[in-house]
């Protein structure tokens, strides 16, 4: 087993990551009412503290197409709702790409 009960330390997964010119977009998908584990929250917050990382938490799924409810941007110590729906998420993704491409 990779996890160590002595250390309370286990690997965590990330649902999506994109890189452009040293800028990273990290995306974590959660179903409605599904919570981040403490370890996953700490991992994502550590990414969010890095200047070239943007971290999104997306409520929805991709089981049968793209279903997006709300989505939030995670910052070092808090989060802010930044959109709702698949079209707004696509718009954010394109906006992030333009930012990463030109900075």
How would you describe what is shown here?
This protein has 103 residues and is an alpha+beta fold. It has helices at 38-49, 86-102; strands spanning 16-20, 23-30, 53-61, 67-74, 79-84. The protein has a five-stranded mixed β-sheet, sandwiched between helices. β2 (23-30), α1 (38-49) and β3 (53-61) form a beta-alpha-beta unit. The longest helix has 17 residues, at 86-102. It is globular, with a radius of gyration of 14 Å.
For the largest beta-sheet, the strand count, sense and barrel status come to: 5 strands, mixed
Order of helices and strands: EEHEEEH
Strand numbers in spatial order across the main sheet? 1-2-3-4-5
Shape: globular
Task: Describe the structure in brief.
This protein has 103 residues and is of the alpha+beta class. The protein is built from two helices and five strands, in the order ββαβββα.
List the SSEs and their pairings:
Blueprint: E1 16-20, E2 23-30, H1 38-49, E3 53-61, E4 67-74, E5 79-84, H2 86-102
Parallel strand pairs: 2-3
Antiparallel strand pairs: 1-2, 3-4, 4-5
């Amino acid at each position: 087993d990779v996890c160590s009960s002595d250390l309370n330390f286990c690997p965590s997964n990330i649902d999506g990551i994109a890189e452009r010119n040293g800028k990273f977009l990290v995306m974590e998908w959660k179903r409605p009412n599904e919570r981040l584990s403490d370890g996953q929250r700490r991992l994502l917050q550590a990414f969010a503290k890095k200047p070239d990382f943007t971290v999104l938490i997306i409520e929805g799924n991709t089981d049968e197409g793209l279903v997006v409810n709300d989505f939030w941007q995670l910052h070092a110590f808090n989060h802010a709702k930044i959109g709702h729906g698949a079209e707004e998420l696509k718009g954010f993704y394109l906006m992030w790409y333009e930012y990463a491409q030109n900075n």
